[in-house]
Amino acid sequence: MRWLKFWFFCICFLSFLTSLVQAQGVDNFSGKFLSWHYKLGLEDRFRYENKENFDFNKSTKDNGGLIFNRARVNMEATLVDEYLNDILEFFVDGLDAQVGAYRLKPMTNQKDNFDFHQGYLKIYNIADSRIDATVGRQELKYGKGRLIWASTWANRIRSFDAGVLHFASPGGFYGDFLYGQDVKYDDLNFNKSSDNEFLGGFYGGYRKESVSTLYEAYFLTQIIKSATTDTERYTIGGQFEGRLFMFKDVFWNLEVPYQFGKTGLEDISAYAIHFDLSKVFMGWVGEPKVTLAFELASGDRKNGNGTTNTFIPLYQSTHDPYGIMDFFRWQNMREVEASVIFSLTPKLKLQPQVDFFWLDSTKDNWVNSSGTILRSGTTNSVSSFVGTESSLRVFYEIAKNIKFEVGYAHFSTGGFVRDTGDDDDADWAYSQIVFKY
After folding, report:
1. What domains can be seen in the chain, in order of their start residue?
2. Which residue in 153, 162, 263 sits closest to 203, CA to CA?
3. Mean pLDDT of 224-246
4. With the CA atoms of 415, 418, 420 and 422 taken in that order, what torsion angle do they form, in degrees rounded to the nearest 10?
5. Strands 385-399 and 348-358
6. Are 357 and 386 in contact (CB under 8 A)?
7. What's the mean pLDDT when you consider all of the chain?
8. How far apart are CA 244 and CA 233, in angstroms?
């Protein structure tokens, strides 16, 4: 019944918009011949995960499986001119997320009966100004996703009720002015954005050609109001990528943000760093792509001194950037990562990876990818080394619209885990299939 309601809504909505625009005479606007193009999108994803000792204590009965299923359906209507240049775009997207479990409690925070995920209007090249405007519920994605992203790993995907002005010049400059409110999932009701949480700012860059060095800069404002603590967090920084000097086949990526503002009675002063090098070894078996990466996100150095040094990664991507077991995010951490992607066939890829993790400050908390505290900070003298994650993933394209992947990861605990409580190793495995049309 939920699906029928959504289809009825989509058809009525797009029919109304088409009739409205045609009634305004846009079929021959300014002497141009305009036409509508329609597109339907369908996706269904099923994943099974098996977790063991995620509390690092083998004596507790917390091993078992989790089941996730997510279905999406969307409709797009685009108005184009005789040269196939986009004029207007209407987009509607619905999402249904269901969960299950074996010997574990289902993750109800990943469940949402069919609801309105996206719905926006986009106007291209307003008055020949090279400015596009997008208004409505939409996903926001910037840079490599370390600060703002709509991660698709979890059943629920983040969206904003937002307005975005985008400009791009022929010379290679581009930028977005954005303002939005984070949409909060409510399984039993219509999902609404929060009046107490805002994101705004500018994200722009310059790249002369596709092979040239990329320069990006941003200034982002996050305001969160609550009954106990109000936070005004400002993030300024840049992301850059290019080729390494004389080694034209070695690529590098660097991102350096700094945060300031105020949370409650404390001032904010925090920073983060990402740097990686990658190279594809052409002519080798599997044409391996080797990547070495370093991550740092500051943690609080001293409690109660009036300043917090904890870097918060805003609305970051989850799961893949910092290991695949979701034990970390870009907050109070240091990481060294090495990974290799083997393209064994056009459809088959293999990715072994190893990640080494430390806390930037043992006085601050260790948090996972969703921001949940795994271990609290301590004033005792303890090791900062948290552990090592080793993983292997296999990706296979069964058909053009069907993709399968399977993976396994093992977390070997380090000195910080041993010094602060139970320290048994943890294991995780998953298999996933995605149908997309």
Report:
1. 265-437 (2.40.160.100)
2. 162
3. 93
4. 150
5. antiparallel
6. yes
7. 92
8. 34
Tokens of 213: 């060095």
Pair 282, 107: CB distance under 8 Å? no
Of 160 and 226, which is predicted with more confidence? 160
Alpha-carbon distance of 15 to 180, in angstroms, equals 28
Residue 24, both tokens: 């305004």
- Distance between CA atoms of 360 and 329, rounded to whole angstroms? 12
Q: What gap in Å lies between CA 385 and CA 346, rounded to an integer? A: 39
Exposed / middle / buried, residue 273 (Cβ in 10 Å: 0-12, 13-18, 19+):
middle
Q: Quick check: helix, strand or coil at residue 227? A: coil
* pLDDT per residue as tens digits for the range 300-329: 998 889 999 999 999 998 888 899 999 999
State the amino acid at position 383 in one-letter form: S
Position 211 pLDDT exceeds 90: no
> Backbone phi, then psi, for 419, in 5-degree steps?
-75, -15
First-residue to last-residue Cα distance in the chain: 22
d(C-alpha 178, C-alpha 268), whole Å: 23
SS3 23: helix
Residues in the chain: 437
pLDDT at residue 210 greater than cutoff 90: no
The pLDDT of residue 33: 86
**What does the pLDDT average to over 128-146?**
96
Q: What is the predicted pLDDT for the residue at 20? A: 47
Give the type of residue at 32.
K
Alpha carbons 257 and 41: distance in angstroms, whole number: 36
**Tell me, what's the pLDDT at 23?**
44
